[in-house]
């Protein structure tokens, strides 16, 4: 019997069945079938869509973006007024989404680390408290929490005249939250430039210190010196240029507050709900990460003579971060995505102003849905690229 | 003295001292877990008083100062002065939280449909009964049609009639199988063969017996179904927790099979299939569910032929299913990646083809490994189903919100939300505890190496 090798030239003698049983032939066949089905379905949908658009007398294309949007938006970061273009509405929505997400990400990370470490506490009561915090928040829907904060808390706040105030600087009432606004004076640019320089200098110090430690074994107080550079340098410049920064305080005038920076109650509600909900997930990531470092690592560090603080800082945390960072970053992604629930309480984020109001007004469903999805996809892709880069950086180099 | 060296002296240790009294018992536990040091003690006292304050406030609000019967929210406020809960409103609206606007006299249909599903799936927990996978598949494939016919009522089309017939037959088969197992026949098939006398006959003849039994059952089921006379209840009247469970139930049961297929596609060696699956997964995973829902209700009608007009509920269910499938695909892929390459190689060396390798060797291990993530995803889906309230379906959340906008109960927001939160908490918490139990029992040996 002849030994059949892969790809042996016996084409002419093969029957149809034999031919179909060839794995390579079948693979090509399957792919061709899938491709044809996809193309046929896509064509079918396209024909349906154009018929539908014709029947409803609607046009397609992105020309509508230059048209003016006749509605106003309750609260924007970018300047906006009714009558600006739809494209401007898109940008306004993106910035509103990003602002609430970034603030939420900052606080949720801090709170998440705090609760995660609480859960690992040796104190039974503290760890139980943290674990019930996590359980209750993770087992109720985010949208419910958002509506609860908005309708049952922030809408029931007192009117501006009876608002809660802290130090006569921060005020909370049913119109929103008021803070002093910084007003930069002449020469404040110098301080800003120094801050950038300080960041670069701190980073350079850290790199140099690490290099020196690797070469000589001598440690350098990077943290203290870095802190000194980071805060000292800008402060020095700030004072030298004559402290060119004043604050515009919010003050009650008539029935409402004027001045300062303010955010509406919907912003407070969505921010608080996002922070609290995601801090529970963040806490779980932190806890799992720290637990993932084998106890032998601690013992090995102790037997080398490291003190507990150093063990934590030099041995446990660097290894825990490898397990904490990926879920943490995907949590940040979820914060950005879940900020779209702001639509339920009227915070004008991208989905609310563009996918709802603009879509209802202009009727360009396909274009608008595509643009909104494009935004979220590009955020998601850039975050996952950053994550992949990080993973490659910290991957265990073994074998 | 016993210390002198004698030939026959045996070393007798003194009985060991009892542990110090402050390291055992309640005191020991307290010292170890609550008052380990000054800092620990402060933490305990601060935490304890926080909890006490919180619990006391909750008790005052929810029980001591609460009003249990009143005619309107005004009446409640007059009694409580804003210091207590108005559970009267919640109890008036309770029926709506669970059934939406489903007519009162027809609600037995919803209950019955729920009971049928529970009874259908009950054999999963009977250790003696075999064919568990067949039970699961029969429920997933046919129960939705039975439920649709029961819940929608009215005129039932021929397709739905046939499906209901199959569903009823399958349901009967599942429970006859249970009966046969406990009667000592082993399985329904064995019982049928024994009773009909075809026990030792040819495979072919046995198959005919099975088909015959199925046809008899099917005809009986059809005749039974023809006697139904249910009042029509359109989907706009569906609502409350019932609607939430319908949407999430369909999404959950469709997520696993579609997710497995997508995950296999993404890991396939065929580039065309891989590209399509990857694009599908990445597209729907990277956008928020609310955009997919908006897409479903605004864009999907444009994609369909002009004369087709799909129910909003159907569009929403399709959207949630797509979303669920994309997420499940990534979880299954994670499980597939965690399986040792040796398992694939061993399966191929045994001469198994691709599908046999996947269904017999790889998938059982991968899915067991991923039980916590899969159940976590189901919990997430159940919670995410509340998003349908944004596009105007009256699920439990929108019902809770609507009850605070009712003229009689205007302003009642805290109580319905607390109630809804409690409902979700109970369901989700039980699911997550059950998943931990499953992980210990069937996932054992795979979880930690």
Describe this structure in words.
The complex is a heterodimer of chains A (399) and B (449). With 399 residues, chain A is an alpha+beta fold. Chain A has twelve helices and eight strands. Chain A has helices at residues 16-21, 23-55, 86-119, 124-138, 142-153, 188-216, 222-240, 265-291, 295-303, 308-338, 350-362, 365-394, and strands at residues 164-166, 170-173, 176-179, 181-184, 245-248, 251-253, 256-258, 261-263. In chain A, the strands form three sheets. A four-stranded antiparallel β-sheet of chain A has the order 1-2-3-8. In chain A, strand 2 and strand 3 form a beta hairpin. The longest helix of chain A has 34 residues, at 86-119. The relative contact order of chain A is 0.12. Chain B has helices at residues 25-33, 38-64, 73-80, 87-99, 107-121, 132-152, 158-183, 188-196, 203-226, 240-266, 271-286, 289-298, 300-303, 312-338, 341-349, 354-369, 371-384, 396-403, 414-441. By secondary structure, chain B is mostly helical. In chain B, 69% of the residues lie in helices and 0% in strands. Chain B contains 19 helices and no strands. Chain B has three domains: 27-88, no CATH class; 89-102 and 233-449, MetI-like (MetI-like fold, Orthogonal Bundle); 117-228, no CATH class. In chain B, 32% of the residues are buried. The longest helix of chain B is centred in the C-terminal third of the chain and has 28 residues, at 414-441. Chain B is globular and about 80 Å long. The interface between A and B is large, with 56 and 55 residues.
């Amino acid at each position: 019997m002849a030994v059949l090798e892969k790809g042996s030239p016996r084409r002419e003698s093969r029957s149809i069945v034999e031919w179909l049983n060839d794995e390579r032939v079948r693979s090509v066949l399957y792919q061709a079938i899938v491709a044809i089905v996809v193309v046929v379905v896509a064509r079918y949908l396209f024909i349906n869509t154009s018929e539908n658009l014709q029947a409803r007398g609607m046009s397609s294309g992105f020309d509508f973006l230059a048209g003016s949007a006749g509605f106003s938006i309750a609260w924007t970061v970018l300047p906006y007024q009714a009558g600006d273009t739809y494209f401007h509405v898109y940008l306004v929505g993106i910035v509103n989404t990003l602002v609430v997400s970034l603030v939420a990400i900052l606080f949720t990370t801090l709170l998440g680390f705090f609760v995660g470490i609480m859960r690992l506490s040796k104190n039974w009561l503290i760890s139980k408290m943290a674990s019930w915090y996590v359980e209750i928040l993770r087992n109720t829907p985010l949208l419910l929490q958002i509506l609860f904060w908005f309708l049952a808390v922030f809408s029931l706040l007192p009117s501006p005249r009876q608002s809660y105030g802290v130090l006569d600087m921060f005020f909370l009432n049913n119109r929103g939250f008021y803070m002093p606004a910084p007003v930069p004076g002449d020469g404040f640019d110098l301080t800003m430039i120094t801050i950038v320089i300080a960041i670069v200098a701190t980073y350079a110090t850290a790199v140099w210190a690490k290099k020196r430690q690797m070469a000589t074994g001598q440690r350098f107080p990077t943290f203290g010196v870095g802190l000194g550079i980071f805060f000292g340098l800008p402060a020095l410049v700030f004072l030298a240029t004559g402290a060119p920064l004043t604050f515009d305080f919010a003050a009650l005038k008539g029935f409402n507050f004027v001045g300062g920076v303010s955010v509406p109650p919907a912003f407070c509600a969505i921010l608080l709900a996002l922070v609290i909900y995601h801090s529970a997930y963040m806490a779980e990531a932190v806890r799992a990460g720290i637990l993932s470092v084998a106890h032998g690592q601690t013992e090995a560090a102790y037997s080398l003579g490291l003190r507990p603080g150093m063990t934590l800082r030099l041995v446990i945390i660097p290894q825990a971060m490898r397990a904490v960072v990926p879920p943490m970053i995907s949590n940040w992604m979820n914060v950005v995505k879940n900020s779209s629930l702001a639509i339920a309480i009227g915070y004008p984020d991208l989905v609310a102003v563009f996918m709802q109001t603009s879509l209802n007004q202009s009727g360009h469903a396909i274009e608008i849905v595509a643009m909104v999805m494009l935004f979220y996809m590009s955020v998601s892709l850039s975050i996952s690229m950053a994550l992949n880069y990080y993973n490659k950086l910290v991957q265990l180099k073994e074998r | 003295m016993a210390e002198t060296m004698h030939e026959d002296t045996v070393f007798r240790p003194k009985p060991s001292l009892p542990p110090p009294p402050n390291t055992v018992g309640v005191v020991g536990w307290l010292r170890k877990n609550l008052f380990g040091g000054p800092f620990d003690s402060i933490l305990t006292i601060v935490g304890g008083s926080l909890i006490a304050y919180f619990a006391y406030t909750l008790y005052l609000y929810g029980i001591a100062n609460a009003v249990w019967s009143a005619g309107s929210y005004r009446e409640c406020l007059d009694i409580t002065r804003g210091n207590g809960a108005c559970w009267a409103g919640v109890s008036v609206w309770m029926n709506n939280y669970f059934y939406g606007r489903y007519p009162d006299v027809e609600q037995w249909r919803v209950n019955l449909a729920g009971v049928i599903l529970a009874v259908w799936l009950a054999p999963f927990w009977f250790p003696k009964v075999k064919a568990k996978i067949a039970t699961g598949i029969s429920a997933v494939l046919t129960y939705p049609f039975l439920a649709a016919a029961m819940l929608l009522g009215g005129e039932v089309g021929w397709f739905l009639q046939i499906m209901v017939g199959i569903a009823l037959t399958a349901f009967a088969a599942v429970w006859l199988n249970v009966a046969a197992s406990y009667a000592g026949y082993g399985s329904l098939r064995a019982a049928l063969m024994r009773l009909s006398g075809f026990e030792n006959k040819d495979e072919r003849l046995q198959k005919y017996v099975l088909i015959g039994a199925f046809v008899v059952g099917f005809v009986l089921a059809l005749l039974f179904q023809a006697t139904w006379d249910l009042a029509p209840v359109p989907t706009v009247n569906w609502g409350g927790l019932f609607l939430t469970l319908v949407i999430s139930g369909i999404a959950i049961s469709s997520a696993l099979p579609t997710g497995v297929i997508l995950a296999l596609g993404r890991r396939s060696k065929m580039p065309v299939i891989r590209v399509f699956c990857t694009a599908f997964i990445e597209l729907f995973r990277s956008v928020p569910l609310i955009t997919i829902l908006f897409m479903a209700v605004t864009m999907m009608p444009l994609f369909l032929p002009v004369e087709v007009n799909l129910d909003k509920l159907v569009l929403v269910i399709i959207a949630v299913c797509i979303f669920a499938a994309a997420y499940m695909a990534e979880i299954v892929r994670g499980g597939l990646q965690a399986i040792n390459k040796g398992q694939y190689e061993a399966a191929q060396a045994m001469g198994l083809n691709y599908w046999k390798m996947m269904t017999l060797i790889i998938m059982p291990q991968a899915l067991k490994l991923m039980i916590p993530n899969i159940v976590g995803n189901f919990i997430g889906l159940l919670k995410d189903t509340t998003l349908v309230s944004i596009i105007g379906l009256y699920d439990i959340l929108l019902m809770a919100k609507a009850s605070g906008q009712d003229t009689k109960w205007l302003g009642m927001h805290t109580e319905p939300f607390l109630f809804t939160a409690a409902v979700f908490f109970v369901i989700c918490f039980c699911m997550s505890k059950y998943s931990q139990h499953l992980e210990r029992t069937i996932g054992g040996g795979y979880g930690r190496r």
